[in-house]
Known about the structure:
Elements: H1 3-30, H2 40-64, H3 70-87, H4 89-107, H5 113-129, H6 131-138, H7 140-163, H8 171-183, H9 196-208, H10 212-238, H11 244-254, H12 271-275, H13 279-291, E1 295-297, E2 303-305, H14 307-326, H15 328-344, H16 346-349, H17 352-378, H18 385-394, H19 405-411, H20 413-422, H21 431-449, H22 456-477, H23 481-501, H24 503-506, H25 514-541, H26 546-565, H27 579-591, E3 598-602, H28 606-609, E4 616-620, H29 621-630, E5 643-649, H30 670-674, H31 689-708, E6 713-718, E7 722-728
Parallel strand pairs: 3-4, 3-5
Antiparallel strand pairs: 1-2, 5-7, 6-7
Amino acid sequence: MSMAMLTVIRIIWVLAAYIGVTLFLPWIILRKKLAGIGSVSTKFMAYFMIGNFYIMNLVFLLQLLHISCRLTLVIGTALPFVFAAYKYKDSVFPVLEKAIERIRLIAGGEIGKKTLILKFERKLRGLSSGTVGKWMSSHWPDIVLTLGIVLLIFYMYGTNAVKVYGYCASDMVVHHYWLSEMIHNNIFVDGVYPFGMHCVLYYLNGVFGIPGHVLFRIFGIVQTLMIHLMLLAFLRALCKSKYAPYAGLVVYLLSDRYFKYTYYRYYATLPQEFGMLFILPAVYFVIAFLKEKDFVLTEKKKTVCSRTAGLYLILFAVSVSMTLAVHFYGTIITGLFCIGIGAGFCFRCFRWRYFKRLMVAGIAGICIAVLPMAAAYVTGTPLQPSLNWGMSVLSGSTETMPADQEQEERDGEHLSAASDNEEQPVKGKSLTARMKGLYYKILRELNYYVVSYDARVPRFLLGSIGLLFLLGILWCILRRSEYGAVLMSASVFMLLMTVLQSAGGLGLPQVIEMSRLAVYYAYGSVLLVSLCLDAVLFLLFQGNRAMDLGSLGALGAVCVATGLLGIRVPVCLTAYETNGAMLCLQNIIHENRNAGNWTICSANDERWMVDEYSNGYHYETITFLRQMEETDSFASVTIPSSNVYFFIEKKPGLYMDRMNTEKPDKTVSPEGLRESLSRQPGIQPYIGDARWVTMSHMYYWAQEFKRLYPNEMEVYYEDDAFVCYRVRQNEYSLYNFAVDYGYAGETQKD
């Protein structure tokens, strides 16, 4: 089986496992409880929030108690079903008894295959002609469009997963390390950090047996799919027209006007993007609660909200807790949107009966998220260094620059030239001139971080923010205050995001690192497109039957306009492992599953990829080379394993602290061999020219060892950029790998 086909199968497997535990299982238990909570989109968000919340906190609890394993995870997952079965025993037990009896009849041969097929066929006919069939027949355009969006997401982002097998972000190395330690019940091994995503990945690893390196390779496309579907569900729950939500997503997925770094991070499994899953549901449940008017005055003269409103508050608290449990940037964005809601729903949210409940729910959500981290901190675990970095960004004491900033600035000079010319009136002191100056600074910042190669787009975004606010006021005048409040809330939120995104140019503190904030800004721009379109359609058609046809036509027009302006193509990033290395890793794991000990000597994250396998070990390339140099008279350099695999890059990779599409251009050479090995700590010997030197030493060592031991050292795999050598040895009579290969400035031998 090819690696591409294996990747597709794994994507389906990981997606099915994740959806199963976060959507299907909550639906089984809570479908009656949440029957009246709202539309399908609302239920989708509710089930998804509950499923993720339960998994995260189950893992947190078991990890802090140091009893986490597959057995305890399965028991923890089954507990809600046991509780539900006991609570509804009068209805559950007869069904269970009937199912057991049917299994007995099938096992005993009393029910044959033909009978089973006939019953299954009748069930399918019943579904197709029953409630499910009627729902699907009336919603087939939505189903087709949603499937189209799903396929488009897989095409745009799945192409990279199928063609590039290694990790596409340097951050994933440390995240994999943390996941590997969680497998050993050692959470917060590197310090206290929001571990929400790691808890979900650990659950999938522990319960379904999906290896960690597969999860980090594949889960990025799964979470990207869910991020976009969550955006679609949010818009479907708020919009009045059926097809306006799809318009914004089409622009977001297809348009080439977004700067590449606003979507590059979707190609990797990273906490910041995973946390985006919980922002919009938190916002929606606040809006849904504010729309509830059913408050009851009890006998004790206390105002109590309805059951539905109470559910919205609980779901809001659950969503807020997960934004903080995964990445605090998500909590900041949620807070900004809540400020926007406060402005849009000012006529209601500042009433005491609404305000106090929202505050209690928000504080409760934050406390739930902080509790596991606080428990670890008070027991002596320090904060993780990157969390300290995040705090410094929040305080404005540090600033990091996006990747390729100098190059992008040179590429974008022609875009900002017009703005620079228009900024001349700023020299005046009038209020108008100052406002124009601020306006052009904002345009320039958006042009730099969010938009790619089109100076008109920032004006369109700012115009959409203003238009959306005016449409909101108009709908309030037309006595559709709740709908108008939604529009104004989104407008104020995007205005705050614009100010935050332009903080550097305006001289304001940068609460969030700019290039990362641009990811949220581009994501939020979908709201501007869809809600503006929806508000105009609602105004034109007033909610009659023709509005669906009008929104479908508007969707078609948006698709055509997007195509005319330019469609982006799927991008394949440069990974931190070559495809050859990942192919070798898969084969090595498969071949040595029931064999003796084996070791991979490499410069990449194979260290943590093999950590889950009890007979697999890793040896650092730089350690191997330094040990050889430091050994007196080549006394002994041995690796105690039956099979030893040496991973060597003939074209050393671009191991950088960023995501990129640049391809390696340097190859191993005698010039690299004549350079001394780097003495820098950590991964410094694997970065830039130091990596070229390291790989050159390793390559020529391998050539010399193969010359001396041609039968013992064989080529396991080789392509243009990578070669893997295998040495088979007797563990009781190890080879001495220390050979004179002409290192440390000496001329390479012929």
